[in-house]
Amino acid sequence: MPIKSKSTQKTVSQVVNDLIAHMRKTGGAEEYLNMQERIFKRFLAFASENRLLNANFCLSMVERYLRERGVPSLDILATPNTMCRKIQVAMRKVVDFHRDGYLIRRRRNAAQLQVPEIFESIHQQYIRYRIDEKEIGPRTMRLSVRETAKFLAVLAECGLLSVSQIKPEHIDIYFRRSATLAPVSIAVKAYNIREFFRYLIMKEMISPNLLAVIPHVRHVRRARLPDVWPPDAVEKLLATIDRHSPLGKRDYAICILIAQLGMRVGDVCELRFENVDWNKGTIRIVQQKTKTPLEIPLTEEVGKAMIDYLKHGRPQTDSRHIFVLHNAPFTPFGANANLHHIIDKYRRNAGITLPKGCRRGFHSLRHTVATRLHEAEVPIHVIASLLGHSSVEATRHYAKVNIELLRKAALEWKEDDHE
Prior knowledge:
hpI Integrase, Chain A; three-stranded antiparallel sheet
């Protein structure tokens, strides 16, 4: 069904000026907005010179403007990072805004995940198998989708027409291109290709002998220390957020959910109204990563932040997700959203400097919550329950940075040894 235009009777001037106002309202980098606005105003100048400023907007005006500027049609993408591409992007916004009345954020790097057409069917079948049969969440599937797509692209480069033609030399070519990566990155690649091969073996498409060709990289999964923020850094981060603006109310509620309750960012993005029991003061979810139920006590501070956002910050939308994008049409965050731009923005504004090598995303706040609880001598099984760990062994990882408790344990061990 074709999309019905919401602004068919608007003039060129109205469409462009409304678009500029819309982009300013929804926000973005000032430099980028200024650049886009300059392009829009050149288009208005073109319309004025041709006495089209007060004419009803139509696509043919845009195409005429592009031709006179020597820019390819919107259907033919220009070379990236050129002025032609920037003009195309800006004019595509004008067309989309005239048609829909709002702008939709487009996914970046979609072309990088393009699977060769001859392998697209088997790739989709594998993804469905992992999600439906193995119950792997979409967020967890992100790496698997990317690595298998890259591997299939290599097969296409080598002229293969079917996965049944895979030979050891094709696997060698793929991993030789990753030789300069860190061992952990190669280990992740090997794991994902190995899982893909197991599926192909199950479907009797390749020989089981090919599994042995995939390199085995020695990598101790928990050799890395948890990423823990310095004392008071989390409080500084939260204090920086402007809680008077709708966007600030949303970001504060998201940050405090993770900083106090240790929720995974994917579970926060997927949080719905039905997951919160306000009477009992709990949050009940099925974790995206483990597919296991989790019940978390809702602290007073977190509850107040969520209520403030829902009453005074959240835009009107039919979505059942609590947290949504603040640009029309106010949809939920994407399945693979890590919200790194949110935490990075406020960390920089707060002037927080993290130790070298410490990760800076929301998962580091989850690490910090667990470590601080461990330092406060909260029982390990209580921390495991709060974080939704299936085993306390996963939670013991956070004892690695609890230096004081380690010293105390070592002292007690020495005293026992001398008795």
